[in-house]
Amino acid sequence: MANHSRPHICQCLTRLASVKRNAVVTVYGNRKRTGREFVDGVLSLAAGLIRLGLRNGNVVSIAAFNSDLFLEWLLAVALVGGVVAPLNYRWSLKEAKMAMLLVEPVLLVTDETCVSWCIDVQNGDIPSLKWRVLMESTSTDFANERNQFLTTEMLKQRTLVPSLATYAWASDDAVVICFTSGTTGRPKGVTISHLAFITQSLAKIAIAGYGEDDVYLHTSPLVHIGGLSSAMAMLMVGACHVLLPKFDAKTALQVMEQNHITCFITVPAMMADLIRVNRTTKNGAENRGVRKILNGGGSLSSELLKEAVNIFPCARILSAYGMTEACSSLTFMTLHDPTQESFKVTYPLLNQPKQGTCVGKPAPHIELMVKLDEDSSRVGKILTRGPHTMLRYWGHQVAQENVETSESRSNEAWLDTGDIGAFDEFGNLWLIGRSNGRIKTGGENVYPEEVEAVLVEHPGIVSAVVIGVIDTRLGEMVVACVRLQEKWIWSDVENRKGSFQLSSETLKHHCRTQNLTGFKIPKRFVRWEKQFPLTTTGKVKRDEVRRQVLSHFQIMTSSL
């Protein structure tokens, strides 16, 4: 008999079927479904999967854009005790095969965008694969594929909608495998439990204030932990989900108005796109319906935040810091609160002469610890532990990578975030940089993120990436690549007049006025014309930036 005191992500279905029975809970294009219709869809699909032969602990890979059916598949697989392993639709077929060989799925589900993967892996490339399913296809271009594969509707056919009586669990309560890049370039499968998702969802509900009256726009892909964890929070409170296949700023702004969106999540690049499109197509018009915005994947610059407040004046804007291995967010900070006449949290903190970027305070369920460096009284590795952390990397018996043991708490494992930071006197966590990304210059440690945080505070800088370049004298030289704001020009002449001109000397002066230590100030600046190369999660590919810099400058030497 199932033990219903155990956490399970499908426990949200009971509430949806009752409290939201006749209310719309999903919107995908012209298709709208009530709570009862959505739950019936999950239960019918789950029954079809059992009849097909899916068993506890079986892995199901899903490669698809966001849709209501993606949510349905996530919950149906979980309901029968399966484990969902979303594949990034931006991957090449080679990358997708590497991920599948790691997690050994028995079933592959794709939409039309990734249907070629179903075709190309049918010849024994993935030995574990038994079934291939086309999630949905209405296009005549895929008539032949519909005859080759199972479909969602086929699995639901001739299935009476069962009652929501029992749940099943994988042997170790695993429910999702999220892929993250390993140091070798091969994907690593972060194994996440039901408890981790529920704990994370409750934190988001408590801190962001999500409720059943919210209308949530899915801007983040459901293949990433940010999109998945926020989706789970919305399922738990019974909010309405509005799903776009993939993020597009123009479409997103239109959908916000048409569907009366109240909340969404962003990364800085998304917010920049929304601001740019709003400025060009809507003449900077306000959207007063949005009430909650949660930003992750990097900090919002003060300029982006000001513009976001202008567009969404009624929104409480929060930032979150986290990682896939911790099921998303570890800390939260309110950047703007329209209910307070004079809200000043972020700017006073960021204007203090401190290192790095402030990311706020830990969520109620989170334990964080800074393991101090031997040569530092306040800076060290950021460690975390608790029910939110991953079970392990798939293929490992325990979460043995990234684990530290605290000497003060013997034999109790802490997860190493890979970040370096410090707590201030108010309990706020400050990020200094990545432990594996630091630059060693003249025997001193420089964390790129700390320098970048200072540079982007200059009104002429949109974004900056700081790298270390081999130098015969210093070991590594600090080099900053910068993107300029519109109407600013680069003129590397020290005394040339003009308020909209930038030079190496003006940026060095800016760093000094922000109390950046001398050895941390970049020795060289590179003007970057295009967007910085990003990962699929919106983070800068620092190694690619370094490679491009070195390809243009064969020899770079410091002048000191």
From TrEMBL:
<feature type="domain" description="AMP-dependent synthetase/ligase">
    <location>
        <begin position="17"/>
        <end position="394"/>
    </location>
</feature>
<protein>
    <recommendedName>
        <fullName>2-succinylbenzoate--CoA ligase, chloroplastic/peroxisomal</fullName>
    </recommendedName>
</protein>
<keyword id="KW-0812">Transmembrane</keyword>
<keyword id="KW-1133">Transmembrane helix</keyword>
<dbReference type="Pfam" id="PF00501">
    <property type="entry name" value="AMP-binding"/>
</dbReference>
<dbReference type="InterPro" id="IPR000873">
    <property type="entry name" value="AMP-dep_synth/lig_dom"/>
</dbReference>
<dbReference type="Pfam" id="PF13193">
    <property type="entry name" value="AMP-binding_C"/>
</dbReference>
<dbReference type="InterPro" id="IPR042099">
    <property type="entry name" value="ANL_N_sf"/>
</dbReference>
<feature type="domain" description="AMP-binding enzyme C-terminal">
    <location>
        <begin position="450"/>
        <end position="539"/>
    </location>
</feature>
<feature type="transmembrane region" description="Helical">
    <location>
        <begin position="69"/>
        <end position="89"/>
    </location>
</feature>
<dbReference type="InterPro" id="IPR020845">
    <property type="entry name" value="AMP-binding_CS"/>
</dbReference>
<dbReference type="InterPro" id="IPR045851">
    <property type="entry name" value="AMP-bd_C_sf"/>
</dbReference>
<keyword id="KW-0472">Membrane</keyword>
<dbReference type="InterPro" id="IPR025110">
    <property type="entry name" value="AMP-bd_C"/>
</dbReference>
